[in-house]
Specification:
12 strands; single chain; binds NADP nicotinamide-adenine-dinucleotide phosphate; globular; alpha/beta
C-alpha cells in the first residue's frame, strides 16, 4: 500500500518518512526535485508512476517573511500545488491530507481558535496557505485540512534550532514575549497525520473537513526559548540571558498573529487523538540534540 508524502525533506516529511508504519505500508517521500508541486507535469508523472492509498501534502513554501516579496512563489507552492494534488486524487477518491497553519488567522481572537472561526490572514504566507485550504476543500471531498502551528524538530531550520545556534554565539538574546502559541513537535504531528491517513484508508465514511493539531498548552516565543535553554543547560549547552521584548521591538516584513492558540477538541472527539504537553515534546527534541558522549 503506497502513501505519497510531498515535501519529503521538510521537518514533517522527514518525521513521516522515519516513523514506524504498519507492515505493508510503503512511504514515498520525494524531494522537491523529484516532485515539484508547482509543476502540473511533475505532479502528473508522480501519479502516473503508481497508485496511492493516500496522499499527505507536507510540502510548502514556508519562508514567512520572504513570501511578502515572493508572492508568486508562495502561491505557486501553497495554492496551485494543493489544487493539483486535489485534482489528481479526486477521481480515484484517494484521501488527501493538506497540512495548513495558524497563520490563516489574524490572532485577534481571545482564547483558542476552533476550526470554524473565520480566517483572516495577516500576510502573503497565510493568504497562500488559505488559498491551498480552499483548493483542497473544493477539489477533493475526501480531504482533511490539518492546521498546525509553531512546528519544531531536531531537523532543518526552526525556532529551537535557531535559538540554540544563536545562544552559542551571543551572551544575550532578545526574544518576543507577546505572541502566544502552542509549540508543536513535527514527530507528534507525523504520528497524528499517520493515524488520520490510516483511518481514512480503512474507512470510506471516516470524517473529513478541517481539524487542528498542536501540542497541549501554550507559551510565548520567549517562554519556549527559556525552556529550551534550561533543557540544553543539562548537557552544558548554551545558556544565554533571554530578554523578553515586544513584537514592536522586533519588526519583521510579515506581521504575525499575536494569538496562535488552536483548539484540538474536534480532533480528539472525531479521531481520538489527544496531544501531549508541548514541554514533553520539546524535551524529546532537545534531548536528540545532546552531543554524543566522548
Ligand atoms: N514550520 C512551522 O512552524 C509551521 C507552522 C504551521 C504550519 N506549518 C505547515 O506545516 C507543513 C510542514 O512544514 P515544515 O515546517 O515541515 O516545512 P519545511 O521544513 O519548510 O519543509 C517544507 C518542504 O516543502 C518542500 N517544498 C517547497 N516547495 C516545494 C514545491 N514546489 N514542491 C515540492 N516540495 C516543495 C521543501 O523543499 P526543500 O527541501 O527543497 O526546501 C521542504 O522539503 C507545511 O504545510 C507548513 O505550511 C508549518
Amino acid at each position: 500500500m503506497n502513501i505519497l508524502v510531498t515535501g519529503g525533506q521538510g521537518q514533517l516529511g522527514i518525521e513521516l518518512a522515519a516513523m514506524a508504519w504498519p507492515a505493508g505500508v510503503q512511504i514515498h517521500a520525494p524531494t522537491r526535485t523529484e516532485l515539484d508541486l508547482t509543476s502540473a507535469e511533475s505532479v502528473r508523472s508522480a501519479f502516473a508512476a503508481r497508485s496511492y492509498a493516500a496522499v499527505i501534502n507536507a510540502a510548502a513554501y514556508t519562508a514567512v517573511d520572504r513570501a511578502e516579496s515572493e508572492i508568486g512563489a508562495a502561491f505557486a507552492a501553497n495554492a496551485l500545488g494543493p489544487a493539483l494534488l486535489a485534482e489528481a486524487t479526486k477521481t480515484t477518491g484517494t484521501p488527501l491530507i493538506q497540512i495548513s497553519t495558524d497563520y490563516v488567522f489574524d490572532g485577534s481572537k481571545q482564547g483558542v481558535y476552533e476550526e470554524e472561526y473565520p480566517v483572516k490572514p495577516l500576510g502573503v504566507y497565510g493568504a497562500s496557505k488559505e488559498a491551498g485550504e480552499q483548493a483542497v476543500r473544493t477539489g477533493n471531498p475526501r480531504s482533511i485540512i490539518l492546521r498546525t502551528a509553531w512546528l519544531v524538530s531536531p531537523h532543518r531550520r526552526n525556532f529551537i534550532m535557531t535559538m540554540l545556534r544563536l545562544g552559542a554565539e551571543q551572551p544575550v538574546l532578545r526574544v518576543v514575549d507577546d505572541q502566544r502559541g502552542c509549540p508543536t513537535s513535527a514527530a507528534d504531528l507525523a504520528a497524528a497525520v499517520s493515524a488520520i491517513a490510516l483511518r481514512m484508508i480503512d474507512d470510506p465514511a471516516a470524517p473529513t473537513g478541517d481539524y487542528h493539531f498542536v501540542n497541549a498548552g501554550d507559551t510565548t516565543w520567549c517562554g519556549l526559548a527559556r525552556y529550551a535553554f534550561a533543557l540544553a543547560a543539562e548537557f552544558s549547552g548554551p545558556s544565554p540571558i533571554v530578554e523578553a521584548i515586544t513584537t514592536a521591538e522586533f519588526p519583521t516584513p510579515a506581521r504575525r498573529p499575536a494569538n496562535s492558540r488552536l483548539s484540538t477538541a474536534k480532533l480528539a472527539r472525531d479521531f481520538g487523538i489527544a496531544p501531549r504537553p508541548w514541554q514533553d515534546a520539546v524535551k524529546d527534541i532537545v534531548g536528540k540534540l545532546r552531543p554524543a558522549p566522548g
